[in-house]
Design brief:
Shape: globular
Strand content: 15-25%
Strand order of the largest sheet: 1-2-3-5-4
Largest sheet: 5 strands, mixed
Number of helices: 3
Order of helices and strands: HEEEHHEE
Distance between the termini: 4 Å
Number of strands: 5
Radius of gyration: 14 Å
Length: 102
């Protein structure tokens, strides 16, 4: 699974996303970590951005922006051949490619 984590981190980095360490909601950016199901990709916005976005129609980071980030990450990973699963909180789990090892 370490190889899959490295592949996901590399793909996100090459696409221009800011990838940070493990899952810690106090750190902003895309957080990538191993889970039993695959690789968890979570997005955390800064408090300042969350406050700014909350003033916008749609609730910002809880609404449209989180959906946009999830769609961008899902689209990138599926275009590279990785199956993904969305979670209700907006996080994504990237699975091992069909026939591949992770």
């Amino acid at each position: 699974m370490d190889e899959l984590v490295a592949q996901v981190r590399h793909a996100l980095d090459q696409a221009g996303f800011e990838v940070v360490g493990g899952i810690d909601r106090r750190m902003t950016g895309l957080q990538v970590s191993e889970t039993p199901a695959g690789v968890l990709v979570a997005w955390a916005a800064s408090d300042g951005f969350t406050a700014l976005a909350a003033d916008q129609p749609g609730g910002g980071s809880r609404g449209g922006i989180r959906v946009a980030v999830q769609a961008a990450v899902s689209g990138l990973m599926t275009s590279l051949g990785y199956p993904v699963m969305g979670r209700p909180n907006g996080d994504i789990i990237v699975l091992v490619k069909d026939g591949g090892a992770g």
